[in-house]
Amino acid sequence: MRQLLAGTALLIAIALGTGASTDPAPLAGQARDALARATAFMRSIAAEGGYLWQYSKDLKQRRGEEVATASQIWIQPPGTPTMGMIFLRAYEATRDDQYLQAAQAAATALARSQLESGGWDYRFDFDPEKSRAWHCRMDKGKLSEAQAAKRRNVSTFDDDNTQSALKFLMAFVAAIKERTDSQVVEIRQALDYGLAKMLEAQYPNGAWPQRYDGKPRDPKQFPVKPASIPKDYPREYSKQNYMGHYTLNDSAQYDCIYTMFDAYRRFGRPEYVEAARKGGDFLIQAQLPAPQAAWAQQYNANMEPAWARAFEPPAVCAGESAGAIRCLVDLYLETGDEKYFKPIPAAIEWYERSQLAPNRWARFYELGTNTPIFGDRDGKIHYRLDEISEERRTGYSWQGSYGAGAMSYYETVRAAGRNAYLARRKRDEAAAKRLTPSLESSVKKIIESLDAEGRWLNRDRIETRVFIRNAGVLCGYLEAAAR
Fold first, then answer.
1. What is the pLDDT of residues 387-420, one digit of tens each?
2. Positive or negative torsion for Cα 368, 369, 370, 376
3. Domains of the chain and any CATH numbers
4. Which tens digits make up the pLDDT trace of 170-193?
């Protein structure tokens, strides 16, 4: 009878889509062991608790986005904050303090590499001599003006850099609750300082720059006004500093908005939600006028599309416009305010009219003519891909299905309605956390691929993104198995 009942239970589980084995305990134990061994290995190669992106098998070669040394850490994902986040998830899945300790080490590395300007550079070097290249928060008030001026002190919002650090520190502080030991106090101070400086970095119109030097600005120099397309603009790279431009490129604006919402949800302080909504208001203002009712990569203080790097001319950008649509939909879902939905239909009309082929767009469209254009390191605008260097032809995305996902997201939410969509998303998230045969299969493969030293190797390289992905699957399995 027991065998019959067990068999019936398994059939019911499969029919319901759970498909879990009747006894996940042995596999769960193997998953825990693999996660612990992999974490121990990664901690053994950390620099002061922080991480790079890649390490050669023999650890003689190390990289972030660039070649790195053994004393360097990388902040830009998938660097130190992303690693810290996966350690926190492992702690939540297992309640094993070793993962909280790993997360705390990463958080301490960030606290000690935080710049006086409030955020983070892409990287930091903990070598006692090399660390003096940066003006850190912990040096504030200890350096003369002349000494400080010689050091790097520019926080970057590009590539989710400063934002990912703050989001991790927020998650860590939430995990350790009321602890007050000196290292935790240091981390809390870094978080409070970073959030305050991020609010300070926001322009009067709600935009954030690509980078911030920590110096307050004169609001009169940054009028709040809608975007416009100038009748005349530089047709060649002007070599002006673009780091203070209002920046959508690489999701800078969207990541700032999401960080502020995260801060509000965790701490309930009104200034955070106000900053997030103000960031959304900027997106509304930054939409270019019809018939090119989409967005540029970056704007100058006069709210005109502007040059960034030599191969990034002022243009309507299909990629960043897709991100703007997604962010506006998210703002609507978060706040319920219909104003964030209103700019989207005009943008969709531009996408539909600007297709090169079904669901295919150029990266850049010329202001005024809407002609696809290309950029190169010569700082000139080109009209044919074969006119630009091979290095830029292959080193940049010039065409893609940029708008397809964003338009589908908008239509799905619009058709369902806000409340129904949010309810469905909640159900889908719950369903994704169930044990399934495919999840068990993935876990077994991940366990088998871990070598004797606790490494997941990819072409003889140790990569943080591989660790993060595999550890995430193991955590997901352990969470599901515990239910």
1. 999 999 998 999 999 999 999 999 999 999 999 9
2. negative
3. 16-194+436-481 (no CATH), 202-425 (1.50.10.20)
4. 999 999 988 889 999 999 999 999
